[in-house]
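Ticket #4471: structure output looks truncated?

Reporter: J.K.
Steps to reproduce: submitted the chain below (534 residues) through the standard prediction queue, then opened the result file.
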Amino acid sequence: MKSLRISEVCRDDEFRSKARNFLFSLQKRAGSSASENKTFLAFLVFIFVHILLFNINASEWGDSYRILRSAEYLGSFVYPSDEKRPPLFAVLLALRPDSIDQIFWGRIVVLLFSIASFYIFLKLLNLYIKSEKYKVLALLLFTFNPVFLYWSLRVMTDVVFSFFVLTSLYLFSKNIKTLSNFQAMFIAFLVYLSVLTRFEGYILLGSLVLAFLLRKDVKKTAYFLLTFIILMIPYLILRNPLNSKYFNEAVSRTYGLNTIAIYIVSVISLFGFIPAIYFLYASKNTLIKFLKNNIHITSFLIIELVLIIAWPAAIPRLFMPIIPFGILVLVFGIEDFFESTIFHNSLVFLIISICLLVTYTISQYHYRLQFLVPNALFFIAILLLQLFVIFFTYKKNFRFFTTFLIVSVFTWSIFTVWSHKDVFKTITEASNYAQKNLKGRIAYNDVSSVADWYLNQKDKNDQVEGIYYDVIKRGNSDFDKLVENKFDYLLVTNEHNTDLTFNTYNRDYLEQVVDFKYRINGKMFFASIYEVRK
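Returned output as attached by the reporter:
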């Protein structure tokens, strides 16, 4: 009887153990399922925002039309000799189905790369962040980052290039200890694609070469370099990177204290909330450890940050490939501040945050930087939101901190998109009108390539020819000069100079055909078409 009781007890313990294991597995699955639901919800938010804003822009930036022009040339298997940009994005745009508009197709391509970037960013977060709530926070900061969201809605190379950078560095991070020959070759292929997308791809190459060399694995380094060189040889024969026009642009720029000041305030404002820099400072030990252990990421970030000073006119667009890694280390700092047992001096946080906020306020008041909320009403709203973020950080109230943080970056992002949605709207509508309704030689003073695209490239009309012409230059709008150049119409816009005025006083040979006017961000923009009466 005694042995029977022992047997029963053993069976009972075994049953309890299995039950505990079963319940634990259910709990683990439930937790895993809940975390997956949160990340999936963040993904749905990302998709919803991008679909909602997909066609919000009335026009594209000038560089977009240069790339679209290159794509049209590629349809005839040639690439324009005067185009300085690498060809990959134009190749992707050239794959457009005939039934889809060029700009619409370009936005689809950028959207697909944006979605792919979100996925790779999530994979990167899984490598370094264990807490699900901080992963979701990072995904939301990525979704509503003012810089990344804005440029992910534009037909530009930045999202495509950022995807190749993010994927290359992620794959190296993931396989840093077990990198195979094939993986080294595949990373080289991604770097090759980045070089064919933007000139900064050579920075990515240098960063990864350094990382490979520090691994002291000659074989893997050889596989990486040889693959890249073999892939690049045909392109290098056609385009020597040392002869790039980008070098001439940097040499011709003037640099001074204003350049440095704009650069600094842009970095401070990069994440859509001003106290962000403090969290990088607060987690300096974690940050330094991360940078030491990930030299491939560190070297790329440092060189890219230095490069941006050389092209200050492209701020903040050039920050695009940096943003995912910036958000990653930023969330390190936020998690360290709210979860670490290490004492964080709240008074130091308060002093640093207020100083950063004052710096941002004074700088924006002085410079009126267009991507840093130049509208007075929204500027005040952003400042108030920053104060709430600072207050609840000081109180270490994570829930209210994250609430106001997301509201802040969302507000900043939506305003950035909204305030730029009508850029080049007047010249786009005027050029469209001219292409569809006029015949003859049309002189335009637009320097953004918008007029060139609609008059000479899109749906080419042989009865219309657009010619760039500086109508404002003294004597250029005189009747004899216009007749000499055989111009039938003038298309005059102030899109590039809001102080520009043009009237027909003492020019009775000019008759206005149509006039497009819009008040955008408090300034009146126009694009007028005049017929030259001969």
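Triage note (M.O.): checked the attachment and the full token line is present. The chain is about 65% helix and 5% strand.
Status: closed, working as intended.
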